Known about the structure:
Blueprint: E1 2-7, H1 16-26, E2 32-37, E3 40-43, H2 47-53, E4 60-66, H3 70-81
Antiparallel strand pairs: 1-4, 2-3, 2-4
Amino acid sequence: MVQQRLTVLHPEGLHMRPAAKFVEVMGTFDCDVTIVTKDGKVNAKSILSIMAACIKCGAEIDVICEGSDEQEAMHKAAALIRGEEG
Length: 86
């Protein structure tokens, strides 16, 4: 298991397009990916879960990846959250 605290930098937070891109990329990995917010945990491979979490720009979240390709998934997740990949 790998875990990293990240700050959401996209101006829209994790809403519609950024959330869809995040789910699309995380769906390519075999490992489980979870986002932990101040309000709870959400499945990072579910667009509905991410949208329901209302993660805004500037929010600090923890991303947890657990499974065979967890390191690569975390690298991609961190880049997306930081807005380095689009």
